[in-house]
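Thread: zinc ion complex, take 2
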Amino acid sequence: MDHYLRHLRFGRGRAESTTKSYAGHLKRFERWRQSRGLTWEEAARDIAGHLIERRITPRAHPGRGRGRAPSDAALGPALAAIHGFYRHAADVGEVNDQVLRLLFEVIEGDRLPYGERERSLVLRPRLRVDARPSYSAHLGPPEATADEVAALLEQVATARDACMVGFLAGLGLRIGQLAAVRREDIHLVPPGRTVPGCAYRHGPHLHVVRRDGHPRGAISKSRSTNVLPVPGPLVMLYAGWLNERRTIPAAATSPWAFVSFDGPAHTAAGQPLSTRRIYGIVVDLAAKAGLRHIHPHMLRHAFGAAASDLDIARDVLQRLLGHDALASQEIYRHAGAARIVEAATLISGRLIEGHDVP
Ligand SMILES: [Zn+2]
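Output below.
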């Protein structure tokens, strides 16, 4: 188990916060296993029993939710951690493959990164927590939790998808805004410097622009231009995607930031992604992670929830969410720009700090 956590942290370069969250879940699982004297194989057969026990045990540690039992949705990351542990244990021969067959069904992967187009096999967890959408109280909070965002990033197969999840959660973008981003909208300049034609000088940033020319109908909902600071970890995710994007020849001349890979016959490479496609990517990542139904707007809500946990000032949050977009000149020269950059850094740090690209 320690080996798995070290593998996550250093082998796969996962953020310390993810590793910490996984470590907590796995520690509880291990305590439960030992208290019942189960072998790893036996424990694998009764993961549901473990989750039910957690479902009815109030949280003891301080913080939000203390004294309450975790919701079904909150157990999704616990299940993702346990699944990840068993996959790793099978990889290194600590448990036998039978256990994997018990936990996962094998499906054919058809959403592979460019360059790995031969069909391969993907393991999909058999056991899921509240994976089907429903309108019952079991749906959980409307925002994705930081744990859930970490679990989504844990599942991404491409730098593109990591970047999109990162932008949805870490910048709080609407799905239509994400689909409509053009490469020219992202200015990766260090603080104090500008690019020609843009007066913003507070570091890397994204211009959220309303435009009607998106070939797949995506538009930014607010009419005015908004400027969002892009904190370091998100710059890294974007840089990783730009590298990957270079391997798609058809993308070279496309102005759109997020484009398709050379997929199965029905899709062409280098095309802008529709909002529908982005929605599907997020929902599929959640299913792969064994989480509840999570869609892109819940990542924007995660941004809002993190901001509220951090007591971000209302006017700053309004600016970041684009509720209070001023004329662009005012945004560039606004005295509060440093506060906005600081808030953006704190919020995204809560949600996607230090996540590396696959
Ligand atoms: Zn700019």
